[in-house]
Amino acid sequence: MNAYVSTELSMIQMLDPQRHELALLQEAYFNKGGTIEVLQGPSFAPPPARHEPPPSKKAKPVSREPEKPNWLDKMAMRDIEREERAAQRAKDRIELIERVRTLAETMTYAQATLRLGMSRRNLQKIAVENGFKFQPAVSNSRRPNLRGAASEAKHAKDAERIKAFKEIGLSRNQAMIQLGVTFKTFSMLLAKFDIDYPKFSKGPHPAFFAKEPKQ
Q1: What would the DSSP string read from start to end of 8-64?
Q2: Element (H or E) spanning 56, and its range?
Q3: Angle value at C-alpha 8, between 5 and 12, nearest 5 degrees
Q4: Which residue has the higher pLDDT, 134 or 28?
Q5: Residues 26-43: pLDDT tens digits?
Q6: Closest CA to 197 of 209, 205, 186
Q7: How far apart are CA 144 and CA 138, in angstroms?
Q8: What distance, in Å, lies between the first and last C-alpha atoms of the chain?
Q9: CA angle, corner 207, sides to 121 and 190, nearest 5?
């Protein structure tokens, strides 16, 4: 018997008198009619298990590619673009008509042709369709028959204009139209004032031609 067991046995034996006394008191209590009621001790019920939902995983945003337009959308876009082009052409046409109408108030067909770079046929078509006319060209038969000093002054003035036309690069035909003279008169002025006018020239852009003053 080891020391630990011997110690416990000694402690139990020390409590024997108290147990004996308690047994006597209990017996006396029963003899007097007493009873002992055994009370039920407190019961412990564990709480129900808590079921927590599993942590939700955040769904990654799904990247959606832009939907490609179907053939109906493409047709609608083409129709819209076609209408826009038609509207722009109509606007440009109106602006051209107004510009031609303004030039027709002070210019002949020949002068407007040089200014706009358009053919005489197109100018005539615009004028007829929109109800306006260009200024009539002055023919040689309607020009005043200048003689003497007046004729010489006129020739000198035309010669200076021819030199100016040469400087800006007008062709002979363009210069004749600007002067309103025939080829014969133009050749006479070149010979009379010794003007070396080139026979071929591209000429400047029509938009840079100066307006011819009214006679």
Answers
A1: HHHHHHHTHHHHHHHHHHHHHHHHTT-----PPPPP--PPPPP-PPPPPPPPPPPPP
A2: none
A3: 135
A4: 134
A5: 777 778 777 777 667 677
A6: 186
A7: 10
A8: 156
A9: 85
The structure tokens listed for 208 are: 């840079």
Q: pLDDT tens digits for 172-195?
A: 888 888 888 888 888 898 888 888
What is the token pair recorded at 185? Answer: 């008169």
Q: What share of the chain is helix, strand, coil (3-state, %, to 5)?
A: 60, 0, 40
Alpha-carbon span 83 to 77, nearest angstrom: 10
Contacts within 8 Å (CB) and 24+ apart, 138-141:
138/180, 138/215, 140/181, 140/182, 140/185
Q: Give, as one character, the DSSP assignment of residue 147.
A: -
Q: Domains in the chain, ordered, with CATH? A: 72-130 (no CATH), 140-208 (1.10.10)
